[in-house]
Design a protein that fits this description.
mainly alpha; 12 helices
Length: 251
């Protein structure tokens, strides 16, 4: 009887393990397909899968394809996103955001690749990647501005849309510039020094640098040098003396 029970439990355990294993393998339906693709063809294969997806499934497909492809080859994240953005521009921001979540250290490169492939989606790409990796918003914005020249104002506003705490400072800075963006980096740096209520905020001191010291009063020279040759004054040549002499005792 014990033998029968043991066998039954073993069969049940193996069946459960097999079912669990299948569930794990099926978590991302694109793992097997993308794993079979040669490394050099991985970006193109990922883009092809997104392009073939039905419109209603395209966003979910894009996220799953990016996660799977980037998981297989993390270093190829920018190339994968660039290929998808080129094939399906409407999915550029979705692909960039998903890749940045998987590889935050490559956020700027990912955003730049997506924007270069789909320049009309620059603003949406900045929003998606900045939300995924908010602490790299400056690098992300600058990278996209390099990929899409002339889009500075759109990019800066996109940063404000992604990070509401920066929006007041960005709007104030843009107003001061009259709407003209000379440099995305300079604009964001200035906006970061403005608090959410619109007053100047203290600019943090660089790590390891001493705080600025208060400036004291200027000190003049200890003496003024003579411009001529010293001479003796002869008695009686010092001017007219009053009849009663000079009374130095009186005030």
């Amino acid at each position: 009887m014990k033998t029968v029970v043991t066998i039954a439990l073993s069969v049940a355990f193996l069946a459960a393990c097999n079912s669990f294993g299948k569930d794990v393998l099926q978590t991302n339906p694109f793992n097997q397909t993308l794993a079979a693709a040669p490394a050099a063809e991985l970006p193109a294969k990922a883009a092809d899968l997104v392009a073939q997806a039905k419109s209603r499934d395209r966003q979910t497909t894009t996220i799953n394809v990016v996660k799977s492809a980037v998981g297989i080859n993390p270093a190829a994240a920018p190339a994968i996103v660039g290929a998808i953005a080129r094939a399906v521009p409407d999915m550029a921001a979705v692909a960039a955001g998903a890749a940045a979540v998987e590889q935050p250290k490559q956020a700027a490169a990912i955003a730049k690749a997506a924007a270069a492939a789909a320049p009309s989606k620059a603003g949406k790409i900045v929003v998606a990647v900045c939300r995924a990796v908010p602490n790299q918003y400056r690098n992300i914005a600058v990278a996209v501005s390099e990929a899409v020249p002339g889009s500075g104002k759109e990019i800066v506003k996109a940063v404000g849309a992604a990070l509401p705490e920066l929006k007041p400072g960005i709007e104030q800075t843009l107003a001061g510039y009259g709407g003209n963006i000379v440099s995305v980096a300079a604009t964001l740096d200035q906006a970061a020094t403005v608090s959410p209520v619109g007053t100047a905020a203290t600019v943090p001191v660089s790590a390891g640098a001493p705080p600025p010291m208060a400036r004291g009063p200027a000190v003049g020279p200890a003496y003024l040098p003579l411009t001529g040759t010293p001479t003796d004054v002869t008695t009686g040549t010092g001017g007219v003396v009053p009849p009663n002499g000079r009374n130095y005792a009186n005030p």
